[in-house]
Amino acid sequence: YSWGVFASALRAEGWTSTQSQIPYMIACAVFAILMVPGGRMQDRFGPKLVLLIASIMTAIGFIFSGLFKTVGGLSIFFGIFFGIAMGFGYATTTPTAIKWFGKEHRGLISGIVVSGFGLAGIYIAPLTNRLIHQFGLDKTFIILGLFFSAIILLFRLFIANPPDGFRPALSGVKPGLKPDDKPATTSQPAASDHPARDYTWRQMMHTSQFYLLWVMFLLGTFAGLLILGQLSTIGQEQAGLSPSIAMSLVMIYAVFNWLGRILTGLISDKIGRRATLLSIFLIQVLSFLFFPQMTTYLPLAIGTAFVAFSFGGMLTNFPAVTADYFGVKNLGLNYGLVFTAWGGGGVFGPFLGGLVHDLTGAYLVSYHVSAILCFAGALLSLLVRAPRESAAGTGSQIDPVETASGS
After folding, report:
1. Could you read off the pLDDT of 261-297 as tens digits, one per residue?
2. Counting Cβ atoms within 10 Å, is residue 182 exposed (0-12), middle (13-18) or buried (19+)?
3. Which sign does the torsion angle of CA 395, 265, 302, 295 carry?
4. Which of 92, 101, 100, 111 is nearest to 43 (CA)?
5. What is the pLDDT of residue 106?
6. Rounded Cα–Cα distance for residues 3 and 20 (Å)
7. Which residues are CB-neighbours of 298 under 8 A, at least 6 positions away?
8. Residue 176 host element (H or E)
9. CA distance readout (Å), 19 to 265, 312, 350
């Protein structure tokens, strides 16, 4: 989420806007695709092995990006190797945490965990900017690679899946194993905070809900990432800001992205996922419609905050709604498949943003496209419902979270 700082430094060395987005675009695609095998490994072998691979791929990706700082070099090492690291790391942390908690807290827990992803921009953006000015971009890649991989290697020691048969507590009830230590079945459902059954990835992909969620995620991600990788440049060109002041927009984005992830998770636990997603998409629509008029620092900072808050909320609510609809047993793989939509948005959003800027010298078309896509996402959020079970399952009842919340 601090790529705008890297992209600005690359453009200062003669790269075009489109070229500066290619490694980022590839990283987003690989990130999303590798969520699938990473999630499957997490479900089967636990998070420690997956995070070990993520640590190694992070070191390779960043160090060799510093040694081979060309479009091809960064595309391979930042795009592919670090993309693998992101996919494996993200596929591990969020599903692992969600598995420890029941549905009534799922949005909040998801928000807390994924907020780390958004919050990173608060310290990575200024740290990267300072390192670039002091050591140059080449050495900055190497320093960050060593730092990131060491942190992952350390904290992986404290992460584990819950034991087989574990059932999270309802409020005021002690968590632990079910009395008979047997997993729930469709004919004998677990407590009301669980879905009627845990879907396999094949069963999930036979539901219309999977495809609706996938398209919604794609639309929102495309819109958000279309401008995220260009944020520093937008500040400099649209509002006439200095590079250091424009960089503060990246930090503002990080702060409100972090807040959005936590607060929308808490809100969705209260009012339901669909109502929250509808609100998120509508906030983005209004923000992008007014973005062209934001030609001074304060309005641009406010617009950035709204986009960041709502975009962060999406990254909280999609893993939570995936767990609500399809269960937690196979959540790593199932959410990995939903998350491939993020990869589609990550590829085409930044690419279109860079291409539009190279062709027109501005971002007006990008803003309009983003508003239209978010409006389409809002419409789809009105259509999606929790899957109905077959008559042989649970009597064709809609998921209790949807009915109880009125959403």
Report:
1. 899 999 999 999 999 999 999 999 999 999 989 989 9
2. exposed
3. negative
4. 92
5. 84
6. 9
7. none
8. strand 176-177
9. 36, 26, 11
The pLDDT, as a whole number, for residue 188 is 35
Please state at what angle helix 137-155 crosses helix 47-67, rounded to 10 degrees.
170
Do 43 and 337 contact (CB within 8 A), yes or no? no
Environment class of 49 (CB within 10 Å of its CB; exposed 0-12, middle 13-18, buried 19+): middle
Strand partners, 166: 177
pLDDT in tens, 40-73: 999 889 999 999 999 999 999 999 999 999 999 9
Residue appearing with tokens 């592919």:
80
**Please, what's the largest Cα pairwise distance for the chain?**
66
Got the DSSP string for 116-152? HHHHHHHHHHHHHHHHHHHH-HHHHHHHHHHHHHHHH
Radius of gyration of the chain (CA): 21
Rounded Cα–Cα distance for residues 279 and 13 (Å): 41
CB atoms within 10 A of CB 187: 10
